[in-house]
Fold DUF4062 domain-containing protein.
Amino acid sequence: MKIYLSSTLDDLRDYRAGVMDALRKDGHVVVDSYLATPQPTLQQCVDDVRGCDIYVGVFAWRYGWLPPGQSQSITELEYRAALDAGKPRLIFLRPRKGWPGEYFEEDSEAHAHIVKLRQELGDGTAQTSNQFSDPSDLALKVSQALHEQERRQAGAGEAVRREQAAGRGNSLMEPSAPPHPQRLACGLLLLGVRGSDDAALQRLRDAMPPAWHCQARAWTPESDAELATLDALAARARSVALLLSPASLARLQASAAGAELMRWLGERLGGAFVLNAGVDAAALPPAWPVRRVLPVAQWLASPAGSLGGELADLQAALPADELDLDDEALVGLACTTIAMTAAEARALADAPEQVRDRLGADAYAYFQDVTARLAGAGSDWTARYGAQRGQWRPFGARSADELLADAVTRLNSQPFLARQEHAALAGNRVRLRPYPFDPLRLQEGMPAASAYEAARARGCLVLIDELSMLHPDLRPYASMFVSDANVSVATLSPLDPAATALDKLVSVAGPFNVGALVDRFGSKLDPRCELSINSSARLRRWLRLAIPETLAVTDAQAADPERRAAFKRLAFGAP
C-alpha cells in the first residue's frame, strides 16, 4: 500500500525514520514530503495525501510550520486533507510525560493549537488513536495497525469478491480471495522526474484505462534517498514506463541515481518503456534497458481531455500479455543466485591459497577436496560458471536461472495443488523478480543495500553454490541472505554424493558455518533451509515447497524493531 506519513520534523526525526524503515520492509510505499522539490511544499503534501491509500499521523507536542498565508500548520493541513478525502487514518499520540522539554512549543498560540488538535485527534469521533513511547514502540504499533487495517478491508470486501467470482469473473484489483501481500497490484507504473515532468506525468496517469490500475511517481534523481521506495513500487508493478522530456533526460544522465534506477528496472522487470516527450531517441544511453520508445509529445501538446493519436497508439503498443489484466492475480517472487562468475572462479583457481589465508584450514581442505574430485572426473570446475551469476550450471547443461524459471512455470501450470501449497499461493500465479547478487552494491550505505534488505524482509528465495561460499569476497555477503529468517535458501553441491558428510559440513568448524545457516538447518529444522542438494530432481522437489512458502512469509518479523540488530548479529557477529 501507499502510506502517507505525517508528523512534525525535528522533534520526531528518529521516530519517522523507524516507522519508514519498518513500513518499507513490510513492502509498503512510504511518501515523505520533506524532500527538496521545486513544487510548493503545501500543494505537494496535499496532493500526496490524496494519492495515498492510508494516512498515518504521528503527533507529539509541536504544532509545526505554518505555510505562507495559512492559519493552520502544514501538519494539520495534511490531516485535514486526509479527512476531506475520506482516507483511512491511523493516529498516534505521544503522551506528555517524559517528553523532552525542548520539544514543547514555546509560543503560547502554537501551544494552544497543538493542544486543541490533539484533543480532536484523540476523542474517538473521527478515528481511533493510539499512544506510543519510543521509536521502536511506534514502529511496531504502526505496523500492527496497518496489518489490522488490511485485515478489516479484506473482510469487508469478501461478499463483493464472492459476487464477482460467481458472476463476471475477477480482474486485477478484484481477486476472489484477500489480496496476497506480494500481489502485483499495479498494471503500469509511470515514473517521471520531479520538477520537470510533474504535470505531464499526472495527465498521462489520468488518461490511462482504469483497468490498468496505473500508479504515477515523480522522483528526484539528484538524490538516492528515494531509490528504495522506487524499488518497492517496481516490486508491485507488472510493467514500468518512464516519461522523458529533454530536461528530465539531462537530469537523469547527470545523476548516479538515474543510472542505478535504470539498472534496477532492467533487473526486476526486463526493462522499461520510454514515453518520449520530445527527446532525441538516439540520445538515450545504450546501456539503458529500453524496451520500446513511444512518442507522447504531440498528445501532451494537445488540449486536455483529447483522445486518440499518440495516446491510442501507446495504449495499443503496451503488451496485453505482460500486463495480464485478465489474470486473477499475479505475485512477485524476489530471488537471487549466489555463485561465482567465470572470472572470479578462474581467479580463485589460480590462487586457491586465499581460501586458507582468509577462511581457515578447514574451509581450504574442503575446497581442495571438492575441486580435486571434480578434476579427477575430468571436469574443469571453473567451466560451470558464466559471465552472470545466474548462468552458473550446478548439475550440467541448465543454468540456475533456467532451473528456477522452469520450477515457476511448472507451479503456474499445475491445475491442482496440494492443500498447503494452495493455501500459500491463494490461487495466484508467480512472476520472478530478480535481485542479482552483487557484493559492491550490498555494502552498507550503498543505494541498493536498503532495497535488498527490504526484499529479504518481504521474503526472498536464494540458491547458493557451495563452492562459491568458499570465495573469500563472496562469503560475507552470502551471510546476509542465509541469516534472514524470511529468506528461503538452498545450497547446491557440485558432487553426487557430496564430498563430505553433511554432519561435518554443518559443524561449528565446518565450511557451511555461515551466518545462521547451521542454526536454521540443524537446530531449528527450518524446511525452507536445505543443504547439499545434488541433483535437479531434488532441487525441483525443494522449489515446489519453497516457492509457495516464501510467498507466504508473514510481515510480522519484518516489522520487529529489533530485527535489524538481530540480523546483523547473525550475519556478521556485530554487537
In short: The chain has three domains: 2-156, 189-328, 331-572. The chain has 25 helices and 15 strands. Residues 35-39, 156-177, 554-564 have pLDDT under 50 and may be disordered.
